[in-house]
Amino acid sequence: MAILLDGNSLTLEQVANVLYRNEKVQISEQAWENVKKSRKVVEENVQRGNVIYGITTGFGKFSDMVISSSDTEELQINLIRSHAVAVGEPFSEKVSRAMLLLRANALAKGYSGIRRETLQLLLDCLNHGIHPVIPSQGSLGASGDLAPLSHLALLLVGEGEAIYQGSKMSGAEALKQAGLSPIRLQAKEGLALINGTQAMTAVGVLAYLEAQELALTADKVAAMTLESLCGIVDAFAPESHQVRPYPEQQDVAARILSYVDGSNLTTRQGEIRVQDAYSLRCIPQVHGAIYQVLRYVEEKLLIEMNAATDNPLIFSDSGKVISGGNFHGQPIAFAMDFLGIAMSELANISERRIERLVNPQLNDLPAFLSPDPGLQSGLMITQYVAASLVSENKTLAHPSSVDSIPSSANQEDHVSMGTTAARHAYQIIQNSRRVLSIEAICAAQAAYIRGAEKLAPTTKELYSQIRAIVPVIEKDRSYSKDIENVASWIKEKHAAQGVVQPV
């Protein structure tokens, strides 16, 4: 059964189903009625010659210039063409797909004045797997994602480029091959298609979905590291976490204890040392705080996914047309910066655990987990790679949302940079996944040296999964492919399982 869009109830699970399983999408009957009523208000205002931003006026600084009703169609196509100036590498097809879905959901709310046939074509492109080629750089995040969304809109008028059935072609050819026809934009429609936050939100949703799986995997990898270093389990005792009652911290502590239950490698206070280093002892506190961020980000994404973020907004019940600022991406900019910081810390503490696994001054294992220390370097340089990625993350985690550059002759004098924040957060997640992959490889090698049969049942299963990807290190080799293969495995776990809510 197809997912029904009404502009108000789209969930992350549904987005995941559309992105990863190509589930079909339809507009609910009530939403179609709302779209119809909103469109009627636009047409009435055009007929009366009322001066309304973006309908009978120019855009941005040109908002004071009145446009003849006979030129409204040309005004809209000129808008799309002139604003489609994004640059850089294109967004992935999943991001492009998410943008189609989220823009359709926003228009289905019935506050944008779009025609039924235009919204239907947007849905048809999504359902047929026609993905507009959208360059990833060039959005200020207010007035929405103008440049990226303009590239999306070009597809609907038979221009621009698209990916269809694995091949890049013109937008016109993609529509033709799918048996679809381009539309001619009418009053307000160009603005309705491009004035919104769907680029930053699309990237944000994808980043969030991948970050969830990465965080859950990090808990399990950290548990195997704890065992491989004969870590002390007392620090995870529930009493310690009940007196600092963050539920996420308590959940992580309980998970770690469950993962190492049955281990013959973990220790108790005083058996070999009294305390572990922070990167082991403080896993619940650090990972728990990361889950707090994930929950914050989830809340903001759910609101934004079901919001009307264009301008002006059409209120059919009252007939009002209100020029406001819902296109401003500040809430998502903050959320994405916060997500980037959190995922940087996930990698940061992971890299410190890697150091404890390979540094002979910090453990009783062979130096750098080498099969023949000195003659063979073992996993020495994997820690360098992790350190490099962590350092890069620190640069990427500088908040984009603290920046603003005026545009449109100072009419648009404060912007969010939310799309930059989302892009950086996504890149941080890719880097952090590779850091975690290095920890997994090092922890598995340390467990092999200790005796993998001594692992707890849960971590032994993880060990077997890693071993299916990365053979035991018996002599030096290049580990680049090993790292990338483990990273791909972690990423694909989400696609296979769907949305995994933080617990």
TrEMBL record:
E.C. designation(s): 4.3.1.3
Location relative to the cell: Cytoplasm
Keywords, ordered alphabetically: Cytoplasm, Histidine metabolism, Lyase
CDD domains: PAL-HAL (cd00332)
GO BP, sorted A to Z: L-histidine catabolic process to glutamate and formamide; L-histidine catabolic process to glutamate and formate
Pathway assignment: Amino-acid degradation; L-histidine degradation into L-glutamate; N-formimidoyl-L-glutamate from L-histidine: step 1/3
Main location: cytoplasm
Post-translational modification: Contains an active site 4-methylidene-imidazol-5-one (MIO), which is formed autocatalytically by cyclization and dehydration of residues Ala-Ser-Gly.
5-imidazolinone (Ala-Gly) cross-link, chain position(s): A142-G144
InterPro entries: Aromatic_Lyase (IPR001106), Fumarase/histidase_N (IPR024083), HutH (IPR005921), L-Aspartase-like (IPR008948), Phe/His_NH3-lyase_AS (IPR022313)
Pfam family, one: Lyase_aromatic
UniProt catalytic activity: L-histidine = trans-urocanate + NH4(+)
Domain of life: Bacteria
GO CC term, one of those recorded: cytoplasm
Molecular function via GO: histidine ammonia-lyase activity
Residue positions, PTM 2,3-didehydroalanine (Ser): S143
Gene3D superfamilies the record matches: Fumarase/aspartase (Central domain), Fumarase/aspartase (N-terminal domain)
Family statement drawn from the similarity comment of this UniProt entry: Belongs to the PAL/histidase family.
NCBIfam families membership: hutH, PRK09367.1
Protein name: Histidine ammonia-lyase
Gene name as annotated: hutH
